[in-house]
Amino acid sequence: MNNKTTDASARPLATEAAPPRQGGLMALLALANASMFALYLGVGAVLVPTQIAQLDPVNKVATLGLVGGIGAVFATVFNPIAGALSDRSGRRGPWILGGALASLALMAFLGSVDTVLLVAIGWCLGQATMNVYQAATTAVVPDRIPPARRGTASALVGLGLPIGGTLGVLIASATAGTPRTGYLALGAIVALAAVLLTALGREPRREPVPPVPFRRQVARFLSALSTHDFRWAFIGRALLVLGYFSVTGYQLYILSDHIELPVGLTPPAAIAILTPVSMAAMAVSTVIGGVLSDRWNRRKVFIGVSAALSGLVMAVPVISPTWTGMLAFSALNGLAFGCFMAVDTALVTLVLPRSEDAARDMGVLNIASAGPQILAPFVASLVIANLGGYTGLFLAGGALSLLGALAILPVRTVR
Predict the structure, then answer these.
(1) How would you label 362-393 residue by residue, b for 16+ Cβ within 10 Å and e otherwise?
(2) Would you say residue 192 lies in a domain?
(3) Which of 25, 245, 315, 350 has the most beta carbons within 10 angstroms of its beta carbon?
(4) Tell me, what CATH number does 152's domain have?
(5) What are 236-291's pLDDT values in tens digits?
(6) pTM score > 0.90 for this model?
(7) Cα(235)–Cα(364) distance, rounded to whole angstroms?
């Protein structure tokens, strides 16, 4: 860890006892992350918007903003809490498995409802249980992977987004007419991945963290953001994620209301084409960015350039609001976002304030991913309604991503 602190408590656990057969562990983590993103993108980008458009076609933009925003509140709250509880228990496995099985049950519920209110309740609770799963899974990298291999590990784990996202969207698009099937399939994939990770991952026994008073927990929780480099990493990720999800969260409606699609191509079918394009690009940049950042021992340049590219490519659909423009946008945006997330995750593991609070602090960081998703639907619906429609949405998303690129500059202890 490239920190000024030198006492034993600040050293990563992975440097003290690196687990054997890390290749197998990384593969299991990649599968766990792929299943998670399959559910997030399949449900969030296709199934829920499709249900809402069917149930409330007139107010679908505002309704999706409300449902997405409230759901993200649940994600933001449950992620750090679950991380802190898994730190305290000394185990990740029960939280991974419990979150996944609860999510499967909620996906079954979502597939059976027929009102906007019940869709909102189901997706909010689904976000909560999936963030229990995510918090414990995310903490495995700082727990068990040495710092020198964090970029490679983050890249391999990061492949979960392009692979899982593509799979999830394809499943959701193919089952958009029968959403119950799609919800059950995506929930089952998460449950299977959790069973494999907990059964084969051979989690080492960790000493439980002694309980502390609630007020002290809150103070310790907030203390992570008092660390200079961690705080700026948090800000940079929050800005980029806000820009990214403000646009991608409305992709189905962008395709139906803004882009002139080829004759015979429906918006769900268009997403099923755009997503593999974006995710293939993301997979390439995730691996290249993660591996090269390890080899050159440089993180900031990869993060800054990729965040800037993510902002600039938002202009493509503005200049060319066509199917070809959307294809180009999806490929370039995938390249930028994949590299950013892989290398930024590696950087964050190197600026964690305390190794023994890894899951809690990674949960704090995950607020930078989940928190902007609270704002993104509200911001997007307001921009669409008042600031130039979908063109204004692309420009606003680009500005936020460019600000995210600038936020990496103040980080001092990592190059």
Answers:
(1) bbbbbbbbbbbbbbbbbbbbebbeeeeebebb
(2) yes
(3) 245
(4) 1.20.1250.20
(5) 888 988 998 888 888 888 998 888 889 888 888 898 899 889 888 988 888 888 78
(6) no
(7) 12
